[in-house]
## 1
Amino acid sequence: MRRFGRQCRGQDQVFVSLVRQTETQLLAPGQPVVGLARAAQECVQDAAHLTEDQQGRLATQLTGALAAHHQIVTQSRRLTTGKTLPQGKIVNAYDPTIAPICKGKSNCPSQFGRKPGIIAEPATGVIFALHLPVGNPSDPSYVVPLVDKVQQALGQVASRPTPAIHSLAGDLALNDSKVRETLHGRGILTVGIPQTVEPLTPAPTREAIRRMLHEAGLHRKRTPHQVQLACAAGYSRPVVESIIASLLCRGAARITYKGHRGAIVQIGMAVMAHNGATVRRILQDRLSKRAQKFRRLLRLKRHNVNEFKASKN
Amino acid sequence: MRLLRHLQHWLTGQGLSIAVADFVPEPHPVRQWADTFPWAALVAAVDRSFAQRFPTSRARGRAAVSTRVLLALELLKQELHCSDEQICSQLRTDLAVMYACGIREVQVDRSQGHFVLPEVLAQFRSRIDAALMDELLALQAAAAMDTGLVSPAHLVVDTFPSEQGSPRVNDAATLYKAKKKSSRSSPTSPTSALPRARR
């Protein structure tokens, strides 16, 4: 069906009558399935040789399959009559957690899958947390769960003083006033990655810094130096893309494990593998000039290359 | 005996002993990558989670494959872009993979087919849930912060699409194949041996 849809769209015009005819043909064999499934449910309830657990499991699976069938029929009829269905679209009968991920890219069809969110350090690319919700919720809904997860990780840091989040950068999709207010309430500055045609200056003027602090209401919590660092960290879009590219080449581009839990495991393992490779790069001092400068400003530990050679010899 | 031979999954060789750490050079990428993980904390978290969610009342049967090995294999699978079978096969022959899995010494035994079966890896994976995955990520991030290598002061958030694909061999097929293979190798085995075989 998916291939069929692509063929129809690829000819500069949508063959509406062909789509409607095909939909009817495809739905017709499914009509007796509902009756058969209900009969099967009754049989399962009466089956004495099955344990209660088995009966419960089979009944749940049958109910799920019936609900998926009903939803497919409803959405097909709705879509082929020209009515839009922005939310709750089912694209895979066996996994209702898969959703169409529309990212506004005109050069490729919408992907059917999931939309993981990451929170990372932009200088080196270490990912602190991953959030993978069911379906395709709006981007701002990712921010607070991700920040919560980072703060949980901070709670496990033994060294003192405990590090804290000073600022958070995100693109225009994350530009939501409620999210900004929540973050400001937690003492976190918000920096928006702008569109590439008008990049944010990595070194803002004093006026701009004062304005940002005033807007966030963080005069006493954050210093102008921290604002400068936040702008330097969040001004560049390609930095984020490089982290995502690293994840994609570690198997996050195509989820092969089944279900939502499988997707979490696969992407989680890819993130951990990526973090291992990133820490290795830091230890070997194989970092970009920008990352090295940023680490100096943050006074982060630099690996002593001479010490490493001495121990090796 | 054939069943045991088929299910042999751990280091039982009787030949020459090889110190894996001496064999894998220090600048080897897999060795350096493996040394960055806080293995003790990660393994403890996995064991704690499994003990809570899948308690075992009796300690019967063959000793389980170490959590350290299975967790490292799962991570190596993503890092080296391998399938379950490929990574399990590499564990048998590649000393760098053995080092990454925490194996410090191995007994040479040419007749031994494998150390870990792909179905054991699939079973291990099926027990990992979202909460455990979050905990593992938090432990790794906390370890990096503890050593002063990274700072969470300035962060960036973004999302990306991940397409759902279908694996060539999925976990269900791997487990089904394992059942078929074990039943073929022991047609007259007693029924009491089956739970052990699955383990």
## 2
Amino acid sequence: MFAAALVYPFFFRQSFQQDLAIKIFLFGGLASAWNVLGGFTGQVSLGNAIFFGVGAYAAAVVQTEWGWTPWAGVLLGMAAAVGIGVLIGYPCFRLKGHYFAMATLVIGEVISTLFMNWKWVGGAIGLYIPIRDDTWKYYQFGTTKLPYYYVTLAFLVSALVTSAVLLRSRMGYYFRAIREDQDAARSLGVPARRYKLAAMGISAALTSVGGSLYAQYVLFIDPHSVFPMMLSIQVVLIAILGGVGTLWGAVVGAMILIPLSEFTRIYIGGTGSGLDLIAYGLLIVVLSVIQPRGILGFFRKAGAA
Amino acid sequence: MKRRFGKVSGMAAAVALAALLAVPAAAVDTVRIGAIYPLTGPAGATGAELKDAITLAADIVNGKYDLDLPLARTQGLPNLKGAQVEVIFGDHQGKPDVGQAEAERMITTEKVVALIGAYYSSVTTTASIAAERHKIPFLNPESTDPQLTERGFKYFFRTTPYDDLFAENFFQFLNDVKKRKGAKISSVATVYENTNFGTGVHNAIKANAAKYGYRLVADVAYAEKGTSAIAEVQKVKAASPDVVMPASYTADAILYMKTFKDLNYVPQAILAMDAGYISDEFKKTLGKDGDYVLSREVWALDLAKRKPMIAKVNEIYKKRFGRDMNGNSARSFTGFLVLVDAINNAGSTDPEKIRESLEKYRLSGDKMIMPWQGVAFDPKTHQNTEGRGIIVQLISGEWYTVWPFDLASRDVVWPMPAWGKR
Amino acid sequence: MFSTELAQTLLSGVLMGLIFSLVAVGLTLIWGIMEIVNFAHGDFLMSGMYISYWMYVLWGVDPLLSLPVSAVLLFVLGVVAYRLVIRRILGAPMLIQIFATFGMMILMRYVAFYFFKPNYRSIQQTLLTGNIDLHGVYLSIPQLAAAVGAFLTTGAVYVLIHRTRVGGALQATAEDREAAALMGIDTDRMFTLAWGIGAATAGIAGSLLSTFFYIFPEVGGIFGLIAFVAVTLGGFGNVAGAFVAGILIGVVEAMAGYLYDPALKTVFVYLLFLGVLFFRPQGLLGVD
């Protein structure tokens, strides 16, 4: 399958098809990142857009303010995301279940509003990344999508690799213990909070990279496009669709949901009737009812990890 | 013998050469244009109006209409052998990245030769980046963010005047009102949603207020689509401005007017920057409560007094779509005709030729339904330099042009009557 | 002058807050009984608004009179939602439950969008119009009436829960599902009832709101989020808590907007919410 992904752009040369793939990789990566915290560790965060936005703004700001390369922004974004993640996690991890979820949702809204009013990063107007000729240094390519394609693919792969490594490592084992029963884990000597923070940090860093890549792809960001609640929820939805807590679930989910939303928008949304969104909603409901363990649930025997 | 042979081969050569040169003109059956608008999302209602306007414009081009508009009296594009124009609509849902994706899709998959759109300045920004990269002309009839024409793009053209000019119009208007009505106006307040649009308007007003010597006594930014406007209106009330200048989209425009009424507050005038205030919803929803609001506009139905063609076009639109045109639909309509006319002038669907044609394009004011002096694009920025705004006032559910005074259809009502006295 | 404005802000905040309370009450009922966070709650509200709107436009019925119709129809809608969807995911992980209701939200919202278009609608002439002038403080009569209606409805729900046998059964089911079942309470029926009442209260709130607020398919989003905050603030499952929290949110929002910065007023609500969460996680009136 990886090989197929590598050669895809040579068979599918249309800009739209490549764009679709890029979006799939991006969201797949984001969902994988979320999965580390939400799926493996069982801490359902609805605020992952925070880290996405931080990464996007980091990439944009380093260019508009200091003229650096966006790759510096990627690193800066990761650092900031981890910092913010820990800052949020520290008080929030005291909360359980739904309370934690709501808290992350609300914090996401707070940060979104703050960015709307923060003049230094453009406030509501957003940031326009200056257009340059195609270069790797500034990670911008006007005439071809191929570099975007491969970089985003690499992003997805690194998210998956991280997840795979975690799954088999001791840290991953602790994550799962916390997910199953936090108190029991604690009584066995697992420092729950420390590991939850670790999960948060990893998740945040990965998500932030996704945000930075997005910023470079679209070249314009504003709080509406990188911090919205819908984004957080979409990412989580993809993870669930594929199968929460699994390695490939995020990819499967992205491969289904992204084309679905793109195609319904193109073929039905153009009439302006919102039919595409109706289809979206229907799918979510039907799936939740019929197969809550996600698509991969169809292929797994009950009781598997 | 030799001579005849020479003659024959000469003629044969001539015929062969003629045959080679007589390349049949590329039989262009349709000219495909992509239109990207917010067909769903918060501006969905406006998007629908704009879609209708462009659909009508395309019909006028393709059919035969007795109107003094470009390409109306002919069927299709005469310079392209009567080729018909076909519009492919795309929904950007109000999101810049979706707008960009739609632009790319239309260029690469749908193979449009030009793009038009996108109402929201933020989406126009990203969609036109895609167009610029693919070297496809992009005509923007409605977005008013100044920086759109400051990017040095070669393929981007804008027909509508923009916020800086409109803000300036405001203060020119106030000066004129002072003279004519002897009113004492010295302070203004801005109430605006903290988005791209609202903030841009506020900045333009702030700059022009200083330039024209008016004081900005309150600067109230709010988050769009809130549940209540009480706090905001109170802040404005407390500052006692002579004129309140709001910049809001439809939902908030309605909310704020209602709140003004609920709090029994009227300044001397409410002078709005278009958008939500001129939408159909605003006047339908508020009825009498919306009366006496002033707005800058780019167009008004009563301009038909001086340009009867406007009434004729509106009749057709109304019959077909069940509502009047407004400044938004009129601009999209006009922008589309300009674009197709330029394509016709180019005599080709080659994007490069279309672009050149647009650069040289000129249209005189009497061949359009806009109150402009015409259309001519600045060589550097591609901004239409011959556009201008008007000020209109809503009275009993109808918008009347009140400024410039020489285009006005009635005298402005100033100041705004209090709520109890209507 | 200053105190008039402060009073105005305070009162307006309370009026709006009462509406928030009513929306939150339905949500907290559902949450308390079965621990499901209903993302579609705001869209129950939206449905109520449209029902009142259409009854006004088609038959000239004032929203205050169409309120019972709204309540009944929404009750049915709530029951249908429970039977068709929720019942099947009772045992599923919390995340799935969130997403089922989230899907319902999108579905309801965009079906409305499809049929009613994105236009903003408003009811112009209601039975009660105008405003009262109390020494410079203006109270819009429709808003006042809506607030009173919300207060009464919330009170009715409270009485239902705490003073009737059915309410007792609901409470028991909420406390301990298994024990309640063992005592002969039909838990399925209780759940159905909770969804019905929960949706009905949102519908009533919608009818009340339609007298002064504009109606459009996405209106559920704004009020839905505030309802969530209110429910969490007041303690999941706690009707009185939701009531207090709703009013508190209304006041905080209004005051923050007036005293500080309207653009950031919701941030204050959120910060209050987070503060309570960290220092009193069970909510203001909740029991751990």
